[in-house]
Amino acid sequence: MSGTIEFQFDILTQGLLNETSDRRDDIFRGVRLEMEVQLESGEFTQFINRVKDRAQRRTPASEQFNALMTLVFPNGDRPRVLIEDLSFGSLPIAVGGRDEYVTVRVEAESSEGRFI
Fold first, then answer.
1. CATH number for the domain including 30?
2. In which domain, by residue range, is 108 found?
3. Which of 79, 93, 98, 110 has the fewest C-beta atoms lying within 10 Å of its C-beta?
4. Cβ contacts of 19 within 8 Å, gap of 6 or more
5. DSSP letters along 88-102, please?
């Protein structure tokens, strides 16, 4: 598995006539998760069905998908990132040749993410 977590921020700039420099502010826009997973069994199909059922409102709205990623550094630090209540984009499944794993690319976003 390989992945990327992106904490999304925007910088707002506003210039006022009576001031000599622009004012700046930042806004947190949420967290984006991208990962590629090599599948070893068909269990991932159950996950896709659950994501699809939630998107089609076939399950309770309280059902959430959360992700927890541990970052491992050479000095021994192991911070974890918790991303709560993910919303998913497309889930493409790639089937390569005989000598390649079946892979799925996961793209998801959330309004909340933090280091724990």
1. 2.40.30
2. 2-115
3. 98
4. none
5. E----EEE--TTS-E
Contact 16, 23 (CB under 8 A): yes
Mean pLDDT of the chain: 93
How many whole angstroms separate alpha carbon 27 and alpha carbon 16? 20
The amino acid present at 5, given as its one-letter code, is I
Q: How many angstroms separate the first and last alpha carbons of the chain? A: 21
How many domains does one find in the chain?
1
Distances (CA, A) of 80 to 31, 69, 76, 95: 14, 6, 13, 31
Q: What is the pLDDT of residues 72-88, one digit of tens each?
A: 999 999 999 999 999 99
pTM for the predicted model, two decimal places: 0.81
Task: Tell me how far apart the alpha carbons of residues 7 and 29 are, in angstroms, rounded to a whole number.
Answer: 8
